[in-house]
Design goal:
With 142 residues, the protein is α+β, with helices and mostly antiparallel strands. The chain contains 4 helices and 7 strands. A 7-stranded antiparallel β-sheet has the order 4-3-2-1-7-6-5.
Length: 142
């Protein structure tokens, strides 16, 4: 599976520079940068935002360290779209599965992480390491 055009040409879709030292210090288990993905909002409400249904595609990165599972997009502002400690209580709030052999799907209720948000968020990541990420996350959920 190849990297995205934005990653190849502009280097977009990497772990943000401000986050990389902390992530490396935690001990990287799995990482994939410059991958494509999508984020879908269903019946989503947050302060200043409401979507019955919205889908956005992105170039980004996912990483699993000894302490957290995180996913980043280059827009908006290189913020994490997922940043969960590897605590079974927190990880069990994520419904993780494979859509295809190379697509990791993470489905969650945003109110589990932000009390003034509601609805459903589904993030999909196209990576040849999808099965490895899934196995590692499922192994930490119990």
């Amino acid at each position: 599976m190849s990297k995205t055009f934005l990653y190849k040409i502009f280097g977009l879709g990497k772990i943000p520079k401000r986050m990389r030292p902390a992530i490396e210090q935690e001990g990287i288990v799995l990482i994939d940068e410059g991958i494509s993905g999508s984020i879908k909002f269903k019946n989503f409400r947050a302060p200043g935002r409401r979507y019955i249904w919205k889908c956005s595609w992105f170039t980004g990165a996912i990483v699993l360290t000894q302490k957290r599972f995180a996913a980043f997009t280059f827009y908006p502002f290189f913020n994490p779209i997922i940043n969960v400690p590897l605590d079974p209580e927190q990880l069990n709030k994520l419904d993780c599965s494979l859509k295809k052999e190379t697509t990791l799907c993470i489905l969650f209720d945003p109110s589990d992480f932000c009390e003034d948000w509601s609805g459903t968020i589904e993030c999909s990541f196209s990576t040849p390491q999808a099965r490895l990420f899934l196995e590692q996350i499922k192994g930490k959920q119990t």
